[in-house]
Design goal:
mainly alpha; 7 helices; 73% helix; 0% strand; elongated
Length: 215
């Protein structure tokens, strides 16, 4: 059932990407039609400027959608705890936070460079976009850190389970090492760990120069 939810979310994201690209491709035609309307006064010379501004503001949003698509693909795959997932969530956060800067900056440029200002619409859109983008950005950053921790816990549990199934009890050593409390390890222990987990000694040990030792 959970996998079906992930597939549905994946489909929704794909549809969102397609609709967004269609809408962006139709922006010049929509603005052209509005410029000919008597109710909405948009000068034709500003259509290109407004179109470029909309495309620039849409870049972080579209980038975030594609990262969300990759995220959904990983969630529906056989490896939902891939270490790439926090990276995609971070990318979404950066896109959301950059949207705050880009959107407000474009409105400032429109006002001072092209004298384009829609009063209440401009103010409300800046407030709404800034609030939503900040909320999404902060939530994504927190989610990324939480997911990184979940992956670490999962790896630790798999390590302990592997040792338990092998009839060994070196999980304590891994715990001690992870908390930087290990001062020594027997070669026999190291041999068993590498054998059970199919690791190399370099995956466990790291050389750190001891500058306090006098020879």
């Amino acid at each position: 059932m959970k996998k079906n939810y992930s597939k549905i979310l994946n489909i929704i994201v794909v549809v969102g990407i397609i609709l967004t690209l269609i809408l962006l491709s139709g922006i010049p035609f929509i603005l052209g039609a509005l410029s000919k309307s008597s109710d909405i006064n948009i000068q034709s010379k500003f259509i290109i400027n407004i179109t470029v501004g909309i495309y620039i503001c849409a870049l972080p949003y579209v980038t975030a959608l594609f990262n969300l698509k990759k995220l959904c693909t990983h969630m529906t795959s056989k490896n939902p705890f891939s270490k790439s997932i926090p990276k995609y969530i971070n990318n979404i956060a950066y896109c959301a936070l950059s949207e705050v800067v880009i959107f407000n900056l474009m409105n400032i440029i429109f006002y001072f460079a092209f004298d384009i200002y829609l009063y209440a619409i401009t103010i409300l859109s800046c407030i709404l976009v800034s609030f939503l983008s900040l909320a999404i950005g902060v939530f994504a950053l927190v989610s990324s850190k939480l997911f990184e921790r979940v992956i670490e816990i999962k790896d630790e549990n798999e390590c302990y389970r592997t040792f338990k199934e092998a009839g060994n009890y070196y999980g304590k050593f891994i715990y001690v090492k992870k908390n930087n409390k290990a001062k020594a390890v027997r070669f026999t222990t190291l041999n068993e760990i590498c054998k059970v987990l199919n690791w190399q000694p370099g995956d466990i040990l790291e050389y750190v120069e001891d500058k306090s030792t006098d020879w």
